[in-house]
What does this fold into?
Amino acid sequence: MNSFKSLVILTLLATSFSFFAQNKIDQGINFYKDKKFKEAKVIFENVSKNESKNGKAKYYLGLIAMVYERDMDKANDLFEEAVELDKNNADYHYMLGAVSGRLAATANIFKQVSLANKTKDEFEKAIELNPKHIDARAALLQYYLRAPGIMGGSVEKAKGQAQEISKLNQYKGWLSFATIAGSEQKFGEEENYYKKAITEKPDSSGAYIAYGNFCTKQKRFDDALKYFKKYSELEPKEARAFETLGDGYLSKEMKDEAIKSYQKALSLDSNFASSIFKLAKAYEAKGMKKEAKEHYSRYIKFVQDGKNAEFAKKKLEEL
It folds into this structure.
């Protein structure tokens, strides 16, 4: 009888801990969605410490490392752990592919091939596990467009993914075909696809930023600014929306407006490195050397390597 009671108590304790862990996971996810990354990290680290085989905690720690800390090596390790704990989770494979692609972009030539292959393999695995995973299909489409033929790159394969995306979501299908048309320099077709996407879902922001970027490349700066403004109206809590708006203003030499937009972006995400860098350049363009140096220095704290980091270091010596 005592053994039976002990078994019941142990079972209840295990169930209670599992319920508690899930509640903490849900709380952490809510913090993550609200961009309270520090609070979310504490929760997921505690869950991971007490429940080492919790793949979801590893996954969200990986997202935080990638999005907030911008530590791709750390994110890669965490996504690897998440996949190892749950090999049938399409989201885990997709993010492992995404971070592998990020690492490939800055790796030496010897590592690039293996990382690129891993990127493709993980995206394909995500789609195999969940054929309706639009983000994985869109990412694989991008891979097909960018990779050389010897590594599986193919415009036809990209078009195949766009067709599948269209079946799942016509709006995202139009954007996918616009991406392909742009890669083929069929700019008239590209613009028509953006217009179709906006007609399909006029309140979705993705088409506006893509169309605005297209107009910028075509040096249609007034049109670009119009679409960037619409994007910021639809995404008032997104730092990227106001960074893009700042880019639009800067293209028209509206430096004061650009500075305000970059400042707004950083008020929404103080660690948004690209906005820090762009704000530094905008201050420099205005002749505000003290503010420019402050932000170039701040940028280097977040990004030590790469073209922009080298530019910022050079500017700190010159200003």
User: Anything to note?
Assistant: The mean pLDDT is 91. The radius of gyration is 23 Å. The first helix runs from residue 2 to 33.
